[in-house]
Write a structure and sequence with these properties.
- The chain has about 450 residues and is an alpha+beta fold.
- The chain has a single domain, classed as Outer membrane efflux proteins (OEP).
- Helix content is about 70%, strand content about 10%.
- The chain has a 4-stranded antiparallel sheet with strand order 1-2-3-4, with helices on one face.
- The longest helix has about 70 residues.
């Protein structure tokens, strides 16, 4: 009879404990699967070098993949996401059991009663807390996805700058050669006393050549700086070995219609998705606040080891959530945070609409400039150069006219390259705004036809 009492009490405590268990929810299971899939591609903490290192001939997509897998900002966001997913289990778990001790002492030790105490929280409350933690993990996932897209975007911007500087260096080299040819012709005419070559022409051409050489040095410095930026965008420190430097070309990226871009921004923009996840988290917090009126219980057993027969003392307590004003304020605060999160989504949509308008204006302005240069300025410059060469052959013009005509055409080409660079930078911002949700379990950037077209081809 004395043995059956403690066994019955322990069985009752175990039943209460098992009844309060909350199993993993579907969202938690999916989150862990997603974290595991992404983690298998990012690799363990520490140096993270992808298996495939891009070469000089690799397209932009390969460098973007390398950066996403190698960049510490992406890995840090992944670990934050992983920590948020790991917090779901603790939010739905029961508090840890507590060992207790009680003794009665008079002149001697009268009773010695060790025991164990369990805090029993209602399953509905812990389910709501698990839902809030799951929503918080989705916010962390959206932050991770945003980091992926931002890193890939920085790689593309650096790629565009490298392409522009390479084109600018080539055009400035052509300008230098044109000035050298003009100076040689002017020197020959001045030496022989023929034609229209004068010392003044030589001095002017020499000054122009010195200016172009200075601009070439500045462009080489900019190229070295751009390479450092490109290296940093790949997640490499200055002390790391240099990557294979690509030699990209500036090409025009096709963009969808404005209506389609806006729909894609609304449906898949990383920042908007993160804010929507914050709305879901706020909704879950409202559900948690509404469980504040649910009582929590504690149950335990203590045994008097000095009693004969053994004496068992069951203990239990229940919280009394009687402060209705406190509960109402908790619910009101949670609802206010929900409304604020919803309003922030609307504000972000307004900001995205304004950003879309600005980027589209930059694209259209660059397109108009490129069309003007291709359709009017360049053909006119080429005709002027041909006229100057014909006039020089007939003795009606000097070598300076030929050099100036060639420089004008090269300046138009350089301005076209600058306009195309500005256009592609704006297109990169638009691509970042329209970035599709990161593929499930994959942090990588997919390769597109435009990426392949930007890869330099071997002669």
């Amino acid at each position: 009879m004395t043995c059956s009492r403690p066994l019955a009490s322990l069985a009752l405590g175990a039943a209460l404990l098992l009844a309060g268990c909350v199993p993993a929810q579907t969202g938690e299971t999916k989150a862990w699967e997603q974290v595991s899939q992404v983690g298998s591609q990012l690799g363990p903490p520490g140096p993270r070098v992808p298996a495939t290192v891009p070469t000089a001939d690799s397209p932009l997509a390969d460098f973007a993949r390398y950066a996403v897998v190698n960049h510490p900002a992406v890995f840090a966001s992944y670990q934050d996401w992983r920590a948020a997913v790991g917090a779901i289990a603790s939010s739905r778990a029961l508090p840890d059991p507590r060992l207790t001790f009680e003794a009665d002492i008079s002149s001697t030790l009268m009773t010695l009663m060790p025991g164990v105490m369990f805090d029993l929280m209602a399953g509905r409350k812990r389910s709501a807390m698990a839902g809030e933690a799951t929503a918080a993990s989705q916010v962390a996932y959206r932050t991770y996805a945003g980091a992926v897209f931002r890193v890939a975007s920085e790689v593309r911007k650096s790629w565009i700058e490298l392409a522009y500087l390479r084109a600018a260096l080539d055009l400035k080299e052509d300008s230098r050669r044109a000035l050298e040819q003009g100076s040689a012709l002017a020197q020959a005419e001045y030496t022989t006393g023929k034609g229209m070559g004068t010392l003044e022409v030589q001095v002017r051409l020499a000054n122009e050549a010195a200016r172009v050489l200075s601009e070439l040095d500045a462009l080489r410095d900019r190229l070295a700086s751009a390479r450092s930026v490109f290296k940093a965008s790949l997640g490499l420190l200055p002390t790391d070995p240099d990557p294979a430097w690509p030699e990209p070309r500036l090409v025009t990226t096709a963009l969808p219609a404005e209506e389609e871009m806006w729909e894609r921004i609304r449906s898949s923009n990383a920042d908007l998705a993160r804010m929507q996840a914050m709305v879901d988290m706020a909704l879950a917090s409202v559900a948690v606040a509404r469980t504040a009126g649910t009582p929590d219980a504690s149950a335990g057993l203590m045994a008097d080891l000095r009693a004969n027969p053994l004496m068992i003392r069951p203990t239990a307590s229940v919280t009394l959530p009687v402060w209705r004003e406190k509960i109402a304020s908790l619910v009101a605060a949670s609802e206010a945070r929900r409304d604020a999160a919803t309003a922030r989504v609307g504000a972000e949509q307004l900001a995205m609409a304004a950003q879309l308008a600005r980027m589209l204006a930059m694209v259209r302005e660059s397109d108009r400039m490129i069309a003007y240069i291709d359709g009017t300025a360049l053909p006119s410059s080429e005709r002027i150069a041909a006229t100057a060469e014909a006039a020089y052959q007939s003795g009606l013009a000097g070598p300076r006219a030929i050099a100036e005509a060639r420089l004008m055409a090269l300046a138009m080409r350089l301005e076209r390259a600058a306009a195309l660079r500005d256009r592609e930078e704006a297109a990169t911002e638009l691509a970042l705004m329209m970035a599709d949700d990161a593929p499930s379990g994959s942090p990588l950037i997919s390769e597109t036809d435009s990426d392949r077209s930007q890869a330099p081809s071997r002669p």
